[in-house]
Specification:
alpha/beta, 39% helix, single chain, Rossmann fold, 5 strands, 192 residues, globular, five-stranded parallel sheet, 2 domains
């Protein structure tokens, strides 16, 4: 049975990976589908997100990554998928996801929605949280795959450098007004 895991994945988080890996154990094939959300301003382009997901899921042989612009159920029918896979973090997710599941059922009564409760350690995690932390120079490598953390760090470093005031010499000052980028945690010094 084929399951579709739709989302914007901007960026993919360790919470998304948790749902993907568990879905791959439950279904013959899982297709992660990046949908364009016109109500959001994405940090990464669709091709960049596809690449990030592919790099983060190479270890999953029954996974495919794709993009689509349209209704999820339309894509599911094109791919002959019978399941829409969704992750639930908190009660507010459930209300929104249940409404979406009921709506999808009115459009395609042969396609079921399967909810997976996110693992406890990721119950707070969202792409928005990751972007907010990174925007202010905080570390995100414990929240997203390492390669994605590097992409985020580079993206926000460009943004902060471009918006930082410059000194008379033309370089950005290292003051509280120009936050330093620390998207990756510093290794802990080991005693010994």
């Amino acid at each position: 049975m084929i399951a579709i895991y739709p989302g914007s994945f901007d960026p993919i988080t360790r919470g998304h990976l948790d749902v993907i890996e568990r879905g791959c154990r439950l279904f013959e094939q899982v297709i992660v589908v990046v949908f364009r959300n016109s109500s959001k301003s994405p940090l990464f382009t669709v091709p960049q997100r596809l690449d990030q997901i592919r790099r983060s899921t190479r270890h999953l042989p029954n996974l495919e990554v794709d993009s689509f612009d349209g209704l999820t159920v339309t894509y599911a029918r094109l791919r002959q998928a019978k399941v829409l896979l969704r992750g639930l973090r908190v009660v507010s997710d459930f209300e929104m996801e249940l409404q979406m599941a009921h709506t999808n059922k009115t459009l395609a009564d042969d396609i079921e929605t399967v909810f997976l409760a996110t693992s406890t350690e990721y119950s707070f995690l969202s792409s928005s949280v990751v972007k907010e932390i990174a925007r202010f120079g905080g570390p995100v490598d414990h929240l997203v795959p390492q390669a994605v953390a590097i992409d985020i760090c580079k993206c926000y470093a460009k943004t902060l450098i471009a918006s930082a005031p410059t000194t008379a010499e033309g370089s950005a000052p290292t003051t509280p007004e120009a936050p330093q980028i620390e998207c990756l945690k510093k290794p802990h010094a080991s005693g010994g």
